[in-house]
């Protein structure tokens, strides 16, 4: 690839389509694996909490090692694209297996199946996610081109996440009925299996298009870091660590809510058509997330010339206001879906902008690390993004699992096989209040910490980023 020319439309579209596919897969796992195994298959909430958190501890060793493996890879296709293909194909197979748990399993066998498939899913996802994001500094010129591509990719990721958030529950019910489900639980079990297969196939197709469209440019050869050198490099790259901690905090807040909101609609707002309300809520919130990435952020950044850091602060505050509104509406006993759309829009619009910004901030630390430490470790830096995102989802799922276990919220506890059962009548007021508080107050507290941490630690202003880009350009000339 000619390093002096700009990216073509085909390259941008191909990369963006890959982002759609990978985040469809990630959102299906992050938002529904707990619900699938705990509420549908009957795995203990506490067991699921241990599984989800233990898998993230395992990732602490797996993800950095994968970053080093990618950095050492040398093939005719480059070092990133081979792993994109390998990781995608294996992850698609594991995703389908994870949501196709044999209904005959119970007890220890059921727990083992959930643990094995979830750990394998995390390993195979890492194999494609690290090279996917590591490609940004490797085939862009830096500066505006990198920022624009990152914005596009994150916007497309938001589209993928939104598609799954919006359509999963309705699609699961429709597919479950279409393929022979009889009871409410069978409908969901069968529906998730078919829906996971559809998502897995789309994932493979989209990444194949990415690999065909995007070509890696030659980069400066340098000695590959060992695992010890990698951790040392990260420790000395204070700006990378500042963003890593920020990602953990922001994502924990979001994933706590995404894991519990389905229970809120099913057991708090209730009603036989709860999944229709849940789908409409996700549709509006998902649209807000996409519009924030594709329209609101560019308006604030390019037209109004607001700095990235100020936009990020505004997003954190917007999220906190949204959570406060959600708690106030639920506590007041409101059952009007239209009112709940307000906090949904605030939270997801802020999430959309901040997802773009966090990736931009992290990409900027690559240049910072090269100037400060003399190494340009794209794979090392972005392997940490993969790890911390999965760590965040694991911590959030652990908190959600403990919440569900203590509140005793599950189909087995409060429902019958009668599909006309009103779920809201089977849950006590104390259980509902506990659910509301965990899914709103804890995220608010975590976001406050994120605000203070970022404001104190992150120093790469827009002006500083431009200076770094110039220094890196001079270094490579």
Overview of this structure, please?
The protein has 477 residues and is mostly helical. 81% of the residues lie in helices and 0% in strands. It is built from 15 helices and no strands. The protein has helices at residues 9-40, 45-72, 81-98, 107-139, 143-178, 184-213, 227-236, 238-269, 274-303, 308-331, 337-373, 378-407, 411-414, 429-457, 462-476.
List keywords for this structure.
477 residues; mainly alpha
Question: What is shown here, in short?
Answer:
The chain has 477 residues and is an all-alpha fold.
Indicate the mean pLDDT: 85
- Run of helices and strands: HHHHHHHHHHHHHHH
Q: Report the sheet-strand fraction.
A: under 5%
Radius of gyration equals 22 Å
- Structural class by SSE content: mainly alpha
Separation, N- and C-terminal Cα atoms: 17 Å
- The tally of helices reads 15
